[in-house]
Amino acid sequence: MRDYIEQRALEIGNYIIEAGATVRQAAKKFGISKSTVHKDLTDRLMEIDSMLAGQARAVLDVNKSERHIRGGLATREKYRNRTDTNL
What we know:
Layout (H helix, E strand, L loop, with lengths): L2 H17 L3 H8 L3 H15 L1 H31 L7
């Protein structure tokens, strides 16, 4: 594995743990796709630092279990901000 890929995987893992970030937030911050974030965390990081990978996976599992709540809040906020002229 190339050095820059290993470094990126470590940085993504640390970012997700420290910020409690979602895969989308990590992808946006690092300018890569969500698929690459998943690949870095599930495959590459496990080979590099399994303890860090486990901690990052725990944060992602929490985010996954709460995503329906965040989606509902976003939808509620969207319709709360609408006016009659937008209908």
